[in-house]
Batch of 2 targets.
Target 1
Amino acid sequence: MASAVCLVECMGALKYGCSSMAAGLLPPTPFFHGAKLGPANLGRSHKVSMTTTVPPKAKEVGKSKIHFQPHEVQEQVTHSMPPEKVEIFNSLEDWAENNILIHLKSVEKSWQPQDFLPDPSSEGFIDEVKELRERSLELPDDYLVCLVGDMITEEALPTYQTMLNTLDGVRDETGASPTSWATWTRMWTAEENRHGDLLNKYLYLCGRVDMRQIEKTIQYLVGFGMDPRTENSPYLGFLYTSFQERATFISHGNTARFAKGCGDLKLAQICGTIAADEKRHETAYTKIVEKLFEIDPDTTMLAFEDMMRKKVSMPAHLMYDGQDDNLFEHFSAVAQRLGVYTARDYADILEFLVKRWNVEKIEDLSSKGRKAQDYVCRLAPRIRRLDERAQERAKQGQTCAFSWIFNKDVLL
Ligand SMILES: [Fe+2]
Ligand SMILES: [Fe+2]
């Protein structure tokens, strides 16, 4: 997980004018979804609360102002999955051990960041660092913005482990629970932890970026958290992670290709190696959803519809550097322009998942389930059409100063 990158509505909001992507398809915020959209929440009571802070809200603490809350208006729905559904995940315990944990790699066979970086204990360290810095001179500023945004997203990993542990029926109840679900979450986190570590060290050594500003952004982002709107439901949660792992696979794959094009083969290898991890994670999460479609097709279909109607928010959507209130949108716009992650990718991921789960062919659905099926199967072309229209309306020539690269201007 932990994609860099933008998402359809964010890119639309920034670059193309807010209404573009949203019109008729993606509901604008604030949008009170709690009463109707939970996958299996009919007749159930669940808590709905609301955060109302635009832009980042500062509170007076002693003499200093501290930003405590993200700059988003969002309704928060909790525990929308009926309690009896927890049994489904308990019953899948052995299945997860045999089918999901096999997608983890042992620590002894795993790559480590040090495999790709100059060895500080070697005599050649300084020369290797010099070479790294020379290679990085070929990387343009807009590419660096994308790479930094990807790195910051990876570095907010504590938030993603927290998110997985919000999910009813699969959370790690103790912090060292032996269940398959909890084991997966911890081992997945441990694998992911290398991603931000490696990118962070590379960017530190290259000397092209303002590390202090980047570190501030990471601290803000971890402090703000994220709101994927998964409502403590593992149905929504695993749909979300399926989508996100693929998004990160695409994004890191594109930064790898771009680095190769700039002649930095080591960086290309770094990004490509991370992308390969994301692909493996995608395989595991999509397998879980495939199983849910098999044993509980109606709930899973309604959850899929719910997730797509709400839009899949990006993990770093609350990023802030202490200066730019629209930092995520600006970062997303650069990623879109460079082709690192685009609105078209969003539609492609949706289409990929629809095919991966054979959604069109799923039977045994209620009438609501069939409507949900129809909605998700037709959605990708609609998103693409909206994207094309938005691109036509896009304002060209806007720039933004990014603190991550010493306030240099970058074309959006
Ligand atoms: Fe991942
Ligand atoms: Fe990652």
Target 2
Amino acid sequence: MSKALEGVRILDMTHVQSGPTCTQLLAWFGADVIKIERPGVGDATRGQLQDIPNVDSLYFTMLNANKRGMTLNTKDDDGKAIFTKLIKHCDVMVENFAPGALDRMGFTWERIQEINPRMIYASVKGFGPGPFQDCKVYENVAQCTGGSASTTGFDDGPPLVTGAQIGDSGTGLHLLAGILAALYQRTNTGRGQRVECAMQDSVLNLCRVKLRDQQRLAHGVLKEYPQYPNGVFGDTAPRSGNASGGGQPGWIVKCKGWETDANAYIYIITQAAVWGKLAEAIGHPELVDDPEWATPDARLQRLEEVFDLIEQWTMTKTKFEAMDILNPLNVPCGPILSMKEISEDMSLRDTGTVVEVDHPERGKYLTVGNPIKLSDSPSDVQRSPLLGEHTDDVLREIGFSDTEIGEARASGAV
Ligand SMILES: CC(C)(COP(=O)(O)OP(=O)(O)OC[C@H]1O[C@@H](n2cnc3c(N)ncnc32)[C@H](O)[C@@H]1OP(=O)(O)O)[C@@H](O)C(=O)NCCC(=O)NCCS
């Protein structure tokens, strides 16, 4: 079956996580992604957090599937000549180096347009133009500067970062959307364009509801936050603990086994429409019509008590038993799944969301496949390339003879 982006060539200058997330998705949609790495060095993540000595790390293999790998020194004159040919040959260049790195190599946006006016040039940086534009940025810096950390955690604790990589993978996803829009626009204009995503902006986009709450605060307290009704609200959107953040209150409650299992918990949302059935299920039918409990407004005054009662019931059930009882009642809820449970979940294997891949040096490992499912363009996950595995193939495709490939190797350009 053909793929959505068949025929699109990506010059992949990305490293670490944010850029590679984006180009891995482009590869899963069928683009030919040529990952460029420094000869002898490669993407730093190949060697980071290695579980098996001298074998590409899971950090690398799980972010670089379905790509081809080429080494090229883009600071060397012969390397620059090859890089220029690659810019002519490709449709999209993606990079997430420190600010100015490509300019310093001599490849400014103006120069790239001269070489190939159809080129779409996409970049991730930590910040957009402004006081921090020259800063290097990693995931947690973006979470802290994009509004996530100040609104995550409990009121009596420090700001918290989340395990979801909203700065890195989140920005990669935003960049992907920009590249696809630019490719579509190019079909009409024939011209490439610059696509830029700042990690701070992407995190803030994902924290949009918190900027909503910041403005609501000027008009009164935020009743769905755990600080209501007895806590103190300052002048900024506070940390919201495990509150649901929407109009329907939710919280995490203990389930059977919580004393020894760190993940024996379930998230329950007390959606107004199902309060009666929920009250009956937890053994409190008298609360269905009690005016102190029956309406959402009445419950907002006593949410802690509401979830205490629910918890007394959930502590007598495993998280899966509670789910089985509450789901048919249309009570929105979800067990806290551990990574172990997720890795063993066969329904995620069936959909290709969790995939087992074979690698010549490490053997079999699990990765997360393409979470975006296209009916006419299925994604099959292929292992990541070894450092420089496809250098000769790519050089041949841009017109190099065997002798010229030998010369490029001898000069250290590749
Ligand atoms: C992630 C980040 C902090 C890493 O910083 P770093 O490890 O110091 O790496 P840099 O991006 O500065 O690149 C290092 C150097 O290698 C050079 N380099 C990279 N690939 C090369 C190649 N194929 N050939 C020759 N030189 C190469 C770069 O040009 C740069 O040189 P310079 O400092 O002389 O300009 C930084 O790249 C960054 O802030 N990126 C943007 C934000 C981002 O994506 N962060 C999230 C990462 S998940």
